Amino acid sequence: MFKRRLALPFVRRPRFAAVDPYYLLLFLAIGVYIVIFSQLAFAQHLGMRTHKADLGQIDQAVWNSSRGRFVEMTDNGFVATRMTDHVEPILALISPIFWLWDDVRALLLLQVVAVALGAWPLYALALRQLDRLLSPQEQSQIWHWEPLRQMTRPMALALALAYLLAPQLQSALLTEFHAAPLAVPLILWAFWAIAAERWGQFVVATLLVALVKEEMALLAAGLGLWSLVVWELRVAIHDLRLGWARWRLWRGWLSLGVMLAALGWFYVATFVVVPAHAVQVYANAESVYFGRYGALGNSPTDIFKSFFTQPALVWQIATEPARLHYLWGLLAPFGLLSLIAPEIILLSLPLLLANLLSAYPAQYYGEFHYSAPLVPYFAVSAAYGLGRLWRWLGHKTARTSGSYQHLAAAGLGTMAMASLFTNARTALRPLIALTFTIWLLVWAIVTYTAAGRGPWAARYDPTPITAHDRLLAHFVAQLPPDAAVTATAAVHPHVSHRRYVYQFPLGVAELGQPGAADWALLDVTTNTDMAPGDLKAGVETMLAEAWGVVDGADGFLLLHRGAPSKTIPSAFYDFSRSAMSRQSTVTIPPQTTLQGITVDDWPRWRLTKVNATWQVGADFDAAHFQPCLDIVGADGELLYTLSQATPPALIWYPPSAWHAGEVVQITTLALTLPRLWAVPLVGAGKPLCISQLGSNLADARATAAFVRTNMGKLQQLHVDHYTPLLATQPILTGVAQLQGADMANPLTVEARLNPTQLWPGGPLLLWLTWRGATNWPTGYQVFVHVRRGEETVMQQDGAPRFFTPTLPAPTDATLTDLRLLTLPTNWAGPQQVTVVIGLYDPTTGQRAMVLDQQGNPMGNEWSIGTLPVGAPPLPDQACALIPATCASQPMP
């Protein structure tokens, strides 16, 4: 009977070695992970890329909890509670962290540490599954145990490293702060406790999972079910058959109690607590998050019914390419091993379906916090799947010795192969273990490289911290600790450790109203969630009433109710003036000129701020000067002018305030621009834009052109001496010669086609480099035809162009000619097109001849090549959430 008891799958393992050296490697990896991602999270916060929603409001709720006010926060201009959106008691449980470090970064650090430590129980759980290859008798013998551990430890470590490299966790850590990632280590702890028969720890871990967030209670119920059905009932039945004492059945009742308690808590939190508080903010006694499911319904009942009344619709939504890609993204980091233990994944089905079927792309793209609690289930299922595969192959290689008497005349190679397969335990098992280790690491590294957020990964996007960002601490230090404050969106999380904090302009109420703001800290240069003109009008209204100025510099403005000064300091306008303007001696140039164009880019969301720097000269006349900054697309379309969305610099520091000798920088708001764009001007530094020229474009040139690379970052093109586009490697290139009727020497044209494939509604970029253009035939223009068979489906005619509208006949020896065409969205027919170019005289219709290398005529058009037309690429998350960014999505 004792032997049968040892045969149970979760017996306690012997401890022959005091220290597992692989634990040292694991904790080294955890430490590196914490350092990297805490620094990235800190930089994102200090670089003012965090906001009131969500870091500021959650941080305030946690801070208030640490002061005895349970998840209280100020929202929509009045005192509210975090429970208007979610029930997250875990926020109160972690609030004592602010007793140790009274800084919002403590939350960011806690989130990183919690996720990183999840690798520890995962490693231990994987070891348990892998060590089950040995029988209980063999596990008690060190000569069997230690050789096994030399093979299972690397595999378990590889799985833990795959967990740390999972892109979904990294994205969650860099999406400000949310409660959901805190569930990750708790779920892994609960799985390990079940496997290790640590029932007290199981109860604590599972109940903590339920307290993270209302939907996490469903995951906690699944953990109880896993313990009850898969483990506890099996133990109970086994014990009863052997006549063991019935007292062990209490563990089954314990698991059942945990499951029922979690389900009850889910119901109370979701259908009682949230509706009772949501009315205050949303005027609706129901969680607003049920409205995210589109055609499936906007209530829990309607959504549930859809599974039975509209199964075809549910299937159609679940199998959309973006959602299948989401599932693949969860499986790939763990080498698809999760598919061998699908029952673990089924435990997460409530949350998995909630994300998969949502109409809100952030839930099924894996780059927000929503997917973080799912990663442990795919990791644990991979641990169980790896264990099952390892045990199956291990039993297949159980032979330990061989006989070579029948191979007496065989060669050395034959004997070696025979030894390999007949002595399988010592020869093949290490090779299998090494294969599994490499398999996991390769999948994890490839997935991380393609979608990770850390160093050397495609989505690595560290936040720069500027002198302006560092200046914020100077203003925060001037705020009294207990003051009620209103702040702009990006400033809010930096001042949220107080009972009353609002997002400007909320909180600016009459004196004496409870909780009304008496301080305002504004930054006009970062995210404000309002138009610059509206913000300035709000400040002017405040200064006209009881508010006064306390301090101001570089775009920061500190106001206080009752302060005597009504004058904004000159240093406040420094955000629009460069350091050169503040020097004691300034050389005043004779003319006002544009000094240069630079960009500040945020690759994750493909948001770009364009900076134009002006040197104010002695000829400056504010009454007749109009600064301009035009942005055009590759086809010459005017995309942006300063009049469309006036930058803060022109709102607060217009040309009427400029002085000779100043260097003024005009920075646009964050723009969503296409993949290729340029800033054209007239002449070198002349303050005139093409939007002011009408049809007189003789001198227009692109002074700065930019392309978004396949890594999602902007790269500046050289426009004076053009070089082939480095960011998009052409698949079709060629050189041809064309000669017109009045040309003494032929032109040479080099063509490059991008991208690697076309799709309906997608762009076709054609780069032409004309050499010998001083011989351009009078009146001739370029024609570009895109043909489907014999039918021309797209064409574009005109003189060579480079971002600017059609120019007169060129005179330069070498000309860059950029053509952007778009395939029709209603494409049908052959799945390929042919691109043809040539020169023609629009008045006579006569075409220039195409010559071969020997100068012989080859016809009157040049066929560059054929491109396939396929399905459009999967929209990335930026495109799915912000449709305007789709035009800048990197090409496949």
List its traits.
disordered N terminus, 5-stranded mixed sheet, 27 helices, alpha+beta, 5-stranded antiparallel sheet, 892 residues, single chain
Question: What does this 3D model show about the protein?
Answer:
The protein is α+β, with helices and mostly antiparallel strands and 892 residues long. A 5-stranded mixed sheet has the order 4-3-5-7-6, sandwiched between helices. Strands 11-10-13-14-15 form a 5-stranded antiparallel sheet, with no helix packed on it. A 5-stranded antiparallel sheet has the order 21-18-17-16-23, with no helix packed on it. Strand 19 (781-788) and strand 20 form a beta hairpin. Mean pLDDT is 84; it is low at 1-11, 241-247 and 721-733.
Please identify the structural class as seen in this structure. alpha+beta
Strand order of the largest sheet: 4-3-5-7-6
Could you tell me how far the N terminus lies from the C terminus, measured between alpha carbons in angstroms? 63 Å
The biggest sheet amounts to: 5 strands, mixed
Query: Tally of extended strands?
Result: 24
Whole-number mean pLDDT: 84
Which strand-content bin applies to the residues?
Answer: 15-25%
Principal-axis shape equals: globular
* Helical segment count: 27
Computed over alpha carbons, the radius of gyration is 33 Å
Q: Helix share of residues?
A: 25-40%
In terms of per-residue confidence, which ranges show pLDDT below 50 for 5 or more consecutive residues? 1-11, 241-247, 721-733
